[in-house]
What does this fold into?
Amino acid sequence: MNKEEARAILAQRLGCYREWRYDKLAARVGSCDVEEVAGSSGVAYQLEFQIVWDGKRGGDVRVLGGIDDGGLRAFLPLTDDFIMAPDGRFVGE
It folds into this structure.
């Protein structure tokens, strides 16, 4: 797996979730979105995004993203995440 390509794809797709408002993210808590994307190298990547409460219900929302190429990396995918507070700010940034 090309780590640079995979990180770029993950950052781009996770960025889409960062554009959502808090109420939309909160409504999707408990969901898991899976998609496949072809990198410019031709490698097929699988992405998985989970939306969870980061602590108590109704508080901060964490969006976790992972990417792998279906090979050994499937056991240890590259990951990234962000946390959004109810007021819409990003926690820890």
Notes: The first helix runs from residue 3 to 18. The chain is about 25% helix and 35% strand.
